[in-house]
Design brief:
- This protein has 140 residues and is mainly alpha-helical.
- Helices cover 68% and strands 5% of the residues.
- It contains 4 helices and 2 strands, in the order H-H-E-E-H-H.
- It is elongated, with a radius of gyration of 31 Å.
- It starts with a helix and ends with a helix.
């Protein structure tokens, strides 16, 4: 029973819950970026490239053979168009994460600057004062 309590304590810690929320939001963000690339960005690029749909671009290494229904052979192809779409998705996600991290860094820098300096503990302040007094003392 103690292992179950230990697992419950682990699962309910803030870090694990934050990670779970991040994974869910990241998955949803990935779907949004996929739609953005496939439905918004790539059609104009394909139009500029002469009406090309990049998702359909591929190098066929071996054509499919469906002449014999008992022995169908699937097409073997390098789908470089899908790779281009995925690469653009990665760049958009990387740029979005860069912007988020940059905003967080700027915010944390402002919070550090706004925080008042922490006074040293009393014993350290006393030792500093003694040191300064000894330093200013005339030589004997």
């Amino acid at each position: 029973m103690s292992m179950l309590k230990e697992f419950k304590a682990f699962a309910m810690r803030g870090n694990v819950i934050d990670l779970a929320v991040g994974v869910v939001i990241g998955g949803a963000f990935g779907k949004i970026v996929t739609s953005l690339v496939n439905d918004v960005i790539m059609p104009p690029i394909g139009l500029l490239a002469g009406g090309v749909d990049f998702a359909d671009k591929k190098w066929v290494l071996k054509a499919a053979d469906h002449t014999d229904p008992a022995h169908k052979v699937a097409e073997v192809a390098v789908n470089y168009g899908v790779f281009i779409n995925t690469l653009i998705q990665f760049l958009i996600i990387a740029f979005a994460i860069f912007l988020v991290v940059k905003a967080i860094n700027r915010l944390s820098r402002k919070l550090e600057e706004a925080a008042p300096p922490v006074a040293p503990p009393a014993d350290v302040a006393l030792l500093t004062e003694i040191r300064d007094l000894l330093k200013n003392r005339p030589p004997a």
